[in-house]
Write a structure and sequence with these properties.
homodimer, alpha/beta, Alpha/beta knot, 5 helices, 5 strands, about 25% strand
Chain lengths: ~140, ~140
């Protein structure tokens, strides 16, 4: 089973986001284990990410991927232990971006980091369904 | 006030999505009026969109925009009466895409149409905040 750490600034305050995340957590049971790590500031983000050997930085300046490309990277390139870093309103510290194995841009649109969390989760779930060839992704 | 129609296939079933939409509806009060129109099939989608003179089709094959570009288009190009069409799992009917004033791709990622609804709403709210120069978008 793939084990993912998702390191992010600021807790989940919106009820709707908590519910959406709980829904995807349920769907991911037995398929992927996502551990959410909440940090308070850039210093903690740097500390929490520096031991990660496979680190994906969510960054507007990164490369965009289709869902199929993400699935391919996840299953053939990145391996089963990886960490995603999602910055706050100011983005990620330069040091984290520099260290990252891959800089991933979800879209040229700017999203709240709450929405970025939802998109990451849904795309990871979708990546699994793409790999399985299920009807979720068609 | 900008009046937007958002024409979409399938109702909102997820509680979390309904809550998120209610939250943005509240925030948009007095700024933008979004009318959600739910259709059941392609035929209804074609019927509901054919009288729209300014129609934006959400389409993976369309052009991507930054949030700033979307805001600019909304306030200087598209005018105050417009409609967005969001397809179901199979995307929009070719006729609707052909008729559209603009084909907009949110991202190279595939999203559920529920998530597309949330992203559209948040980006419209963000577009207003960009135009106002508020701190929501920085």
């Amino acid at each position: 089973m793939i084990k993912v750490k998702a390191i992010t600034v600021g807790r989940c305050k919106e009820t709707w986001l908590a519910e959406a995340m709980a829904e995807y957590k349920k769907r991911l049971t037995g398929k992927m284990d996502i551990e959410w790590i909440f940090v308070e500031n850039d210093g903690e983000m740097i500390a929490k990410t520096e031991k990660e050997s496979l680190l994906i930085a969510l960054d507007l300046g990164g490369k965009m991927l289709s869902s199929e490309e993400l699935s391919h990277k996840l299953f053939t390139e990145w391996g089963s232990r990886l960490a995603f870093a999602i910055g706050g309103a100011e983005g990620l510290p330069a040091e984290v971006i520099r260290r990252a194995t891959f800089r991933w841009s979800l879209s040229p649109l700017t999203f709240t980091h709450q929405i970025a969390r939802l998109l990451l989760t849904e795309q990871l779930y979708r990546a699994i369904e793409i790999e399985k060839g299920s009807s979720y992704h068609k």
